[in-house]
């Protein structure tokens, strides 16, 4: 249930060849279908053949995936899904939309892609580390207490957490199982008296003591469902239906448990940064800004001297400057370094041997960021090393005017930030 997933879970790119960070694939007996948002319309057209693929760009005026899917198949069709890869909310929406058209949603126990993925990477088992108080600003013991207070106020016996960022924040731990994200593959189950962390990551004695101090018992990732069966029988279990998979719900219901829909009580406390976290974010951006200024100076001088530099080399140079700081952990996403027309490809990723040279007669876009121990950055800059055309000036100015207008806008009360990007 994350935008970024570990390599061994990259089933969509394997089966389709489309590697955008958002999208849903359905493979039929005659055609295959992809739903993705407007950021990836160009990328999808480049990576998928029209001979076999039908691509739908979601957004205003377009039926949502669960409704549109029902129009692709005839009555009495059976559409299989891996319940481990489908949120409870999406499973419910799909079930209703398909049933209304006489189509059956079949929840499968095995993922069919895994059966044909011969060189599938193994699951990661990277070491985890403690996020110390000097960066967290609040102990994991206090966070667990607050979570149990929310559990009691919601009338639940336990709560399931499956969002990796929420588990990492709650327990003041960080990992590196997923590229660009300091998280570890896991589930968590917290009741009034017990707390379980399901993961296979490598743990030091310090990490084990850190968890033991908070009364957290570590179990293997594979034991998650068995523990749900033993601990949740006849219990009311809280769950964020948008972040918990449908298989979890089915297991709890199989032992006469009730799954109660809530918004994760971890989401808001995690979003509202304390003073220590705010300072960390400021420090990270100052540090990152220095690295970016050094990079832009180096790049400008390199191009001005007539030296050839391509997009990959530029990306590698920027990362090397960030790595000079001991607080650096990793990039926060794959650097988008696009020269000329490549800058117009949303989420463009240059590859060695298949990228452009950076020239002084074209615009250059650099969208990059870093994970530091105390904060995360994401910065975009568009520059020109020569004399931009009037059209380029006008486009650049219009984007600037849009940013200024947005920064001065007053949002209606009740706007939560949960709207998809395609709505704007």
Q: What is the element layout, followed by pairings?
A:
Elements: H1 11-16, E1 24-27, E2 32-36, H2 41-47, E3 53-57, H3 65-69, E4 78-82, H4 88-100, E5 104-108, H5 112-116, E6 129-130, H6 133-136, H7 140-153, E7 158-161, H8 164-170, E8 173-174, E9 187-191, E10 195-198, H9 205-213, E11 216-219, H10 224-231, E12 236-239, H11 246-254, E13 258-261, H12 267-271, H13 275-304, H14 311-322, E14 328-331, E15 336-339, E16 363-368, E17 370-372, E18 375-376, E19 379-384, H15 390-407
Parallel strand pairs: 2-3, 4-5, 7-12, 10-11, 12-13
Antiparallel strand pairs: 1-2, 6-8, 7-9, 9-10, 14-17, 15-16, 16-19, 17-18
Helix pairs in contact: 13-14
| Percent range for β-strand residues | 15-25%
Can you tell me the overall shape? globular
Rounded mean pLDDT score = 94
Helix content: 25-40%
Measured between the Cα atoms of the first and last residue, the distance is 23 Å
Q: Determine the structural class based on helices, strands and strand pairing.
A: alpha/beta
Order of neighbouring strands in the sheet with most strands: 11-10-9-7-12-13
Unreliable residue stretches? none
Number of helices: 15
Biggest sheet statistics: 6 strands, mixed
Number of strands: 19
Measured on Cα atoms, how large is the radius of gyration? 24 Å
């Amino acid at each position: 249930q994350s935008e970024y997933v570990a390599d061994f879970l990259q089933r969509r790119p394997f089966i389709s060849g489309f590697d955008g960070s958002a999208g849903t694939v359905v493979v039929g007996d005659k055609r295959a279908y992809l739903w993705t948002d407007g950021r990836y319309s160009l990328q999808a057209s480049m990576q998928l053949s029209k001979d076999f693929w039908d691509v739908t760009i979601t957004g205003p005026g377009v039926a949502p995936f669960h409704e549109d899917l029902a129009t692709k198949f005839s009555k009495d069709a059976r559409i299989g899904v891996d319940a481990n890869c489908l949120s409870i909310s999406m499973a419910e929406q799909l079930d209703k939309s398909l049933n209304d058209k006489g189509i059956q949603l079949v929840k499968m126990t095995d993922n069919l892609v895994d059966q044909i993925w011969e060189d599938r990477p193994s699951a990661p088992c990277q070491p985890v580390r403690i996020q110390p108080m000097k960066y967290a600003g609040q102990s994991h013991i206090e966070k667990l207490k607050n979570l149990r207070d929310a559990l009691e106020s919601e009338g639940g016996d336990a709560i399931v957490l499956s969002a990796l960022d929420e588990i990492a924040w709650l327990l003041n731990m960080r990992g590196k199982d997923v590229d660009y994200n300091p998280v570890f593959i896991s589930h968590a189950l917290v009741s009034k008296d017990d707390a379980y962390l399901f993961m296979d990551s490598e743990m030091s004695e310090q990490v084990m003591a850190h968890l033991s101090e908070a009364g957290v018992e570590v179990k293997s990732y594979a034991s998650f469902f068995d523990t749900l069966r033993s601990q949740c029988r006849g219990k009311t279990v809280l769950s964020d239906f948008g972040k918990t998979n449908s298989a979890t719900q089915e297991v709890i219901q199989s032992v006469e448990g009730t799954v109660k829909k809530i918004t994760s009580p971890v989401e808001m406390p995690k979003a509202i940064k304390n003073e220590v976290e705010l300072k960390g974010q400021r420090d990270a951006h100052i540090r990152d800004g220095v690295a970016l200024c050094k990079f832009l100076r180096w790049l400008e001088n390199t191009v001005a001297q007539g030296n050839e530099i391509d997009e990959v080399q530029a990306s590698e140079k920027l990362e090397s400057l960030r790595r000079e700081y001991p607080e650096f952990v990793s990039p926060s996403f794959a650097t988008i370094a696009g020269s000329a027309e490549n800058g117009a490809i949303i989420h463009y990723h240059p590859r060695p041997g298949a990228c452009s040279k950076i020239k002084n007669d074209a615009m250059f876009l650099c969208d990059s960021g870093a994970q530091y121990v105390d904060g995360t950055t994401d910065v975009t800059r568009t520059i020109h090393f020569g004399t931009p055309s009037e059209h380029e000036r006008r486009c650049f100015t219009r984007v600037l005017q849009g940013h200024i207008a947005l920064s001065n806008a007053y949002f209606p009360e009740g706007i939560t930030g949960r709207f998809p990007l395609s709505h704007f």
